Amino acid sequence: xxxxxxxxxxxxxxxxxxxxxxxxxxxxxxxxxxxxxxxxxxxxxxxxxxxxxxxxxxxxxxxxxxxxxxxxxxxxxxxxxxxxxxxxxxxxxxxxxxxxxxxxxxxxxxxxxxxxxxxxxxxxxxxxxxxxxxxxxxxxxxxxxxxxxxxxxxxxxxxxxxxxxxxxxxxxxxxxxxxxxxxxxxxxxxxxxxxxxxxxxxxxxxxxxxxxxxxxxxxxxxxxxxxxxxxxxxxxxxxxxxxxxxxxxxxxxxxxxxxxxxxxxxxxxxxxxxxxxxxxxxxxxxxxxxxxxxxxxxxxxxxxxxxxxxxxxxxxxxxxxxxxxxxxxxxxxxxxxxxxxxxxxxxxxxxxxxxxxxxxxxxxxxxxxxxxxxxxxxxxxxxxxxxxxxxxxxxxxxxxxxxxxxxxxxxxxxxxxxxxxxxxxxxxxxxxxxxxxxxxxxxxxxxxxxxxxxxxxxxxxxxxxxxxxxxxxxxxxxxxxxxxxxxxxxxxxxxxxxxx
Length: 500
Prior knowledge:
Elements (H helix, E strand, L loop, with lengths): L38 H5 L18 H10 L3 E8 L4 E27 L2 H7 L4 H7 L1 H5 L2 E15 L18 E17 L6 H9 L12 E2 L20 E2 L3 E4 L5 H9 L2 H12 L8 H13 L3 H18 L7 H10 L3 H13 L3 H15 L3 H9 L7 H15 L4 H12 L9 H15 L6 H10 L7 H12 L2 H7 L12
Antiparallel strand pairs: 1-2, 1-4, 2-3, 3-4, 4-5, 4-6, 4-7
Helix pairs in contact: 3-4, 7-8, 8-9, 8-10, 9-10, 10-11, 11-12, 12-13, 13-14, 14-15, 15-16, 16-18, 17-18, 18-19
């Protein structure tokens, strides 16, 4: 037996609960209605697929109505499979939520059934038997009258249930029980020529004025009790009989997919993508989420490009077939939108295609924008790319190594050699100020975030004044890191001599 989060079991009696016929979803008339109800009239053009189907449960056996009433006080939204022919409540399946009782001003309603067809349509559980038992009376001008008195309803806190988020055992569900109107009801046979009030139907039912033994137990609750105030946590005693089950259709999508497709926000679509690709890849949802992310990427949402690329790549690796996504175009679009790591991917591809000059310019863009790829760009300069003048090339190399020093200590050491040779880096190194501040702040808490790079900045005067004493102090914070101590295995940890 499987459970959904914070769920509880539906009462066992519901396993056998079936309500037949489309007309079971009809809404009773607000006045006497002589015509036989039809499925389209009761449920709309699309029949029971529509929200708001509300089959009567007044002809359920008394013990089943009592079980339903008790179930509504428990946690979890009740799930059901409803195809306009049967209503089957799924006993082992609940969605998140709970039912809250809401009292309403008393609503009285008379439902008149003038022939056997209307009896069968209105009363799905026992209507067929009643139609046979009352066939003679109905043919002679009698009617079967149902008096309803609604004084409140149980309403689920859950307004929507997503089918893909249900466990596999529960995916047969098509609807969940949104509300259950409650109160009292009575049934009795009357004359088609005499339009009775609801109170008269209750009085006749109480006096057992009926031509059929089938009607002896077809009443629950008391009309007078329904006129009394509701209790603090539920209906008034004698006014708690379930009258209908109002259903709402389950959204077949996952919640993540529904939010992405409804709102079109990158964060919602990334959430959907993560759910699809961080579990076993779903062949139904993977193409859809990738297509949505590709559309967002093309529309200028920079965060969508990388996730579309990731999803398409993962699908191709897992399924050995392509989704038809142009990965190169995604990388180029992401680069246009400011994703420098994608610019580096484009640069690598351009290099493999023999377009070295274009690749070099792409790396320059990434380095200048976000200090990404500066070390790789410096390697190309050392290999002969960039400025043709030797002095200009060395200066440019110093600029690049110093810029890369803000992200990796290896580049700090490489810049130190140029620094000792008399070269001083040019450019914006404001990121180093933030790194130094973060190191000093983290050190107060016992940490050492970025302290090696901060020490290099102070030792080499990159973005901050050159200060060897401060550099040693910052590097001491780096040395205090347990991972560093473990790596050193007891050897001395000092500011690298190349930086001094």
